[in-house]
Amino acid sequence: QVQLVESGGGLVQAGGSLRLSCATSGNIFSINAMGWDRQGTGKQRELVATFTKAGSLFYADSVKGRFAISRGDAENTVFLQMNSLKPEDTAVYYCYILLQSGRKYWGQGTQVTVSS
To answer: What single-letter DSSP state applies at residue 88?
Structure first.
């Protein structure tokens, strides 16, 4: 059973920073990609950042230059450093992994709230 657990969310003032962490466990083989989605209230879920096994990085235009995704020293961990946060970044952030089999797994989400 694959599990992903996010942490690091919270309440921060606009302009502040947060670092999200995602720890994975279970029968995880051949990861193709890891990343973060988010979903604001009344909004569609959107891809925030991802990196692939091949080394490609992707950031949503809305977070470029402010957010940075990285992989931890421990295999199958991923971080999202979020700087210069804006109220529009308020959302539940979900960590995910995409396996070579095509299966995708998400964590339970962590709330990020940015006050103006």
So the answer is: G
The rounded distance, in Å, linking the Cα atoms of 83 and 97 is 23
Which pLDDT does position 94 carry in this prediction? 98
pLDDT, tens digit, for every residue of 44-103? Answer: 999 999 999 888 999 999 999 999 999 887 767 899 999 999 999 999 999 999 998 899
pLDDT for 31 equals 86
**What does the DSSP assignment read for 55-86?**
S-EEE-TTTTTTEEEEE-SSTTEEEEEE-S--
Strand order in the sheet with 67-71: 3-7, 18-25, 77-82, 67-71
Nearest of 102, 88, 82 to residue 6 by alpha carbon: 82
Instruction: Give the H/E segment covering residue 8.
Output: none
Q: In 10 A of CB 65, how many CB atoms?
A: 9
